Amino acid sequence: MPSPRARADNLAERLTAAGYEPHVVEERDCVKTEVHVQDQVSADATAWHQLLALLETADAYGLDSGGQGRIAYARFTATPP
Fold first, then answer.
1. Please, are residues 7 and 44 in contact by the beta-carbon 8 Å criterion?
2. φ and ψ at 74, to 5 degrees?
3. Would you put residue 42 in left (φ > 0), alpha (ψ -120 to 50) or beta?
4. Total structural domains in the chain?
5. Angle at 72 (CA atoms; ends 76, 16), nearest 5 degrees
6. 81, part of any domain
7. In what order do the strands lie in the sheet with 31-37?
8. Residue 81: predicted pLDDT
9. Is residue 55 part of a domain?
10. FRET partner for 77 with CA separation of 20 to 30 A, picked from 8, 10, 47, 54?
């Protein structure tokens, strides 16, 4: 199986091809690919499902909402759950 970094980079490439501007973040216990979710994505069911289909390739994924807006993330660990 590819390394967590390789998997995160691969997802970043696919997100870029889909029109997003992802960035990869290395944390102590995982590597995350993050992307800002624009309002038009949230309002468009097709775009939302396409984003979820990409995120589902991760070991875990989610959506954080806060002062920086909505950030979707995909988490890759050395030992998938």
1. no
2. -125, 130
3. alpha
4. 1
5. 80
6. no
7. 23-26, 31-37, 69-76, 60-66
8. 62
9. yes
10. 47
